[in-house]
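Preliminary data (for renewal application), pyridoxal-5'-phosphate complex.
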Amino acid sequence: MSATRVYSQSQKLINLAKQYIPGGVNSPVRSFNGVGGTPVFFSHAKGAYLYDEDGNEYLDYVGSWGPMILGHQHPEVISALHTAIDKALSFGAPTKLEVDIAQKICTLMPSIEMVRMQNSGTEATMTAIRLARGYTGRNLLIKFEGCYHGHSDSLLIKAGSGALTFGQTSSAGVPEELAKHTLCLPYNDINALSEAFAKHGAEIAGVIIEPVAGNMGCVPPVPGFLQTLRDLCTQHRAVLIFDEVMTGFRVDLGGAQAYYDIQPDLTTLGKVIGGGMPVGALGGKKEIMSYLAPLGPVYQAGTLSGNPIAMTAGLTTLKQVTQPNFYQNLKTTTQALAEGLLSAAERTHTPLQVYHVPGMVSLFFSDKAIRNLDDVKASNTEKFNAFFHGMLNKGIYLPPSAYETWFVSCMHTEAEIQKTLAIVEQVFKDIG
Ligand SMILES: *Cc1c(COP(=O)(O)O)cnc(C)c1O
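Predicted structure:
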């Protein structure tokens, strides 16, 4: 079909980068450590396509890990940014843009009555748990194995030796003492959840969850899981935090909370609301949000928070996703991709599980259903790695890890999906 691609510029750049940047990258997954090979260095992008330093073209299913729901270089976003740059880069003082975006977010996500803009998803989740603890006067946090909530100390905790034992730190440099304040439960396990609340209910400050897990591949919640969680939090007066940094304005205009019709107490946002600029946000009930400084005793701040360039990218992106049928179309495209993957697997006798919600898809080389991190780990990740490189060499840029979701943008049309599926089927045959 196509000659083997040349990656000589990327190879040269990664060698140089490794001299000056730890591992040559500014975020670990970019290193290709999971799949092997040379990370691709990109130079520009347009719509659903990426172009690397060697001049290779790729159809993009990473979308900068979620923000690029409009595809790259959307003309309205770019033109709004040009205008904004001509006015000012940063004030460190209030602007009308911040009021506009806050009002827009509160309108689109009714569980959010007040919102604080920040610079990353990590900041938003870090503040969310501090706020949950400050508001309840309790320390214990529940999180779920396989969910990722950024890299603040309190959230780099994985499961301990048993489901109901306290967690262990998942990074060097995080004090073990922090793990004693965290229970890490298996995702989609209603019994473990009920047991944890039965045993510790009065100590639980909050529960943080990805309402669709997207950081162990895409693993949607099983029926009843989120509702049970909502009920238990209400009953025990624990703060329910939906980490919608990935799912917010991606799976539905109102996020996963609208898609599943479950209202959290606090919501963290990022990715899409920044439209490609560094943005995070924390929002929720007025009663809880009023505990944040300067109104309340829970401290949080940011030199560049609410930055006018970032707010412009976010506001313009939100304006586009509120166009009629935006999410309906995204849902149709994603479903066509998911169904096509399964058909290709059937025709080539490839054991495969596929999960999807609008804008997110994952495949797992496994003949068993995937409900949690143990299931993901039991899937054939070596086969994924062969698949990844087969796809890359045919111009399809997938997340370089078996544990990451693919992202679909509104620039992925029927033609892009059909092109992808034809290549998928060929690669399934090639890797056997
Ligand atoms: C990406 C992500 C984060 C972290 O956001 P950053 O902007 O990378 O700090 C937190 N939670 C979820 C669910 C994410 O997908």
